[in-house]
Design goal:
Layout lengths: L6 E2 L9 E3 L30 H8 L4 E3 L2 H7 L7 E3 L1 H7 L4 E6 L10 H13 L4 E6 L3 H13 L2 E7 H6 L1 H9 L3 E5 L5 H9 L7 H14 L3 E3 L6 H6 L1 H14 L5 E5 L4 H15 L7 E7 L4 H4 L1 E6 L8 E6 L21 H8 L4 E5 L1 H12 L8 H20 L4 E6 L7 H8 L10 H8 L9
Parallel strand pairs: 5-15, 6-7, 6-9, 7-8, 10-11, 10-15, 11-14
Antiparallel strand pairs: 1-4, 2-3, 4-5, 12-13
Helix pairs in contact: 2-4, 4-5, 5-7, 11-12, 15-16
The chain binds pyridoxal-5'-phosphate (PLP).
The site of pyridoxal-5'-phosphate has 19 residues, from helix 12 and helix 16.
Length: 455
């Protein structure tokens, strides 16, 4: 393949047919998940997750076959395109070579369908008729709505109230695909009722919406729960992104020096970097630099603690060892709704701890500035979440110019921003603001961490 082309796409028949499981190659195993009541090591609760997903969560098999039916649905938009950002490079006057893998062409507009389709498939196979989930800005809810549509599964989505009110279009997507979507906190659960009694217009948070979806699944027959990020099996399903990219880059004859991705729960970033981190663990690519970018308004890795914490506000979900701002922390109302989670994927936290990947936090205004520069060169309008990764990509490319180095920078482009034009509108009108690290609030939330007896 010509190194100077603008876009690279695998043939459909060359799409990878197995996901990569980093647990086979970790130099140290992940710390166990703990039961929220007993604080003892636990599986995922079987009343929340079907057996196959539970098995994948703890599997040490290096590759897990992608079922034929999942592959068939993936092919509706996969393999996705790897672009060379010639126009952005030129505008930056940089010797860096910038590539981006674009996940915005899925029907839901982001990487999230890669796991949504897999999860809906395994639940269907296990005879599950109904799924519950939470969603922030609606990216995950819409992806799962699409996936449940393909398999004829009923879906109920608890959507963070502030987004439900401010961002109706993704709710409309969910409804078009046949899902039921309610504002969270909702009167449909005990925890929702309790919070609404305290504040009838409670803005909600991802942690609260998770609690509602978990309670609903736990109290309804034939219903399971689904999570769009954070868990090991979710990250594994996303590795299709990195596996496709690696295959393409091998054909072009390049290897990234730097991989940049945004992290909310860590799924799109991991999907991209895990197949490359495999080489770094094997000692083959010691200089590979992986940068996980988060917002200064919700800085789980850069400002949180690496500790055991609950995944949800009610403390019903298993306790995980991860970077956390505290499960009661309610992040600033950032437009990058997908990055407003208090915790981080245990795999991402583990790799940070082992020094295999790095983290960086960037403020909101600088991310929109980068997103606009990207749109005015490459043309694509990116999700506010993705703009975080674009910011650091541009910064690294500028550094290459200053140092006269021609590095290969690979950007994980997680989705388009067509449903986020309100945020762009506010930015262009000068109405957006930066959110600083809310130190006092984080301290308060960190005082609520579960007490885990040291063994
Ligand atoms: C949800 C979302 C994210 C953040 O979630 P991760 O699990 O960290 O990938 C990033 N980008 C887009 C476009 C999203 O929809």
């Amino acid at each position: 393949m010509d190194k100077e082309k603008t876009k690279y796409i695998l043939d459909e028949n060359d799409m990878p047919t197995a996901w990569y499981n980093i647990q086979a190659d970790l130099p140290e195993p992940l710390p166990p998940l703990l039961n929220p009541q007993t604080k003892e090591p636990t599986q995922l609760p079987p009343f929340l997750f079907c057996d196959e997903l539970n098995k994948q969560e703890f599997s040490k098999e290096r590759y897990i076959d992608i079922p034929e039916e999942v592959q068939r649905i993936y092919r509706s938009w996969r393999p996705t395109t790897l672009f060379r950002a010639h126009k952005l490079e030129k505008a930056l006057d940089t010797p860096a070579k910038i590539y981006y893998k674009f996940e915005g062409t899925s029907p839901a507009g982001s990487h999230k369908p890669n796991t949504a389709v897999a999860q809906a498939y395994y639940n269907k196979k296990a005879g599950i008729k109904r799924i519950t989930t939470e969603t922030g800005a609606g990216q995950w809810g819409s992806a799962l709505a699409m996936a449940c549509m393909y398999f004829g599964i009923e879906l109920k989505v608890y959507m963070v109230r502030i987004s439900y009110q401010q961002k109706p279009y993704r709710r409309n997507l969910m409804e078009v695909w046949g899902a039921k979507c309610v504002a969270s906190p909702s009167p449909d659960t005990q925890i929702g009722k309790k919070l609404l009694a305290e504040d009838s217009n409670h803005p909600g948070s991802l942690g609260i919406a998770i609690s509602e979806a978990v309670e609903d699944a736990a109290t309804h027959e034939g219903t399971r729960y689904s999570l769009g990020s954070v868990l090991n099996h979710v990250l594994m399903h996303q590795t299709i992104i990195g596996l496709e990219t690696k295959k393409l880059m091998e054909k072009i004859g390049v290897y990234p020096d730097i991989i940049v991705a945004c992290v909310g729960g860590g799924s799109n970033a991991s999907g991209m970097f895990l197949p490359f981190v495999k080489d770094k663990i094997a000692g083959k690519k010691k200089n590979l630099k992986v940068i996980c970018v988060e917002p200064t308004g919700s800085p789980s890795i850069t400002k949180g603690l690496l500790a055991y914490d609950y995944g949800d506000v009610a403390g019903m979900a298993p306790i995980a060892f991860m970077h956390t701002l505290g499960h009661t922390f309610i992040p600033a109302p950032l437009h990058a709704g997908g990055l407003r989670y208090h915790g981080m994927a245990p795999i991402v936290s583990h790799l940070v701890k082992l020094g295999l990947i790095e983290d960086k936090a960037v403020p909101q205004l600088a991310t929109f500035e980068a997103g606009i520069q990207f749109a005015r060169t490459e043309g694509y309008i990116s999700a506010p979440e993705t703009n975080h990764a674009i910011r650091v990509t541009i910064d690294e490319a500028i550094k290459c110019r200053e140092e006269g180095k021609s590095k290969v920078i690979l950007l994980a482009h997680s989705g388009h921003g067509h449903f986020d034009m309100g945020a762009y509108d506010a930015y262009l009108a000068g109405k957006l603001e930066d959110f600083e690290y809310p130190e006092a609030k984080i301290k308060e939330a960190l005082s609520q961490l579960p007490q885990i007896p040291v063994k």
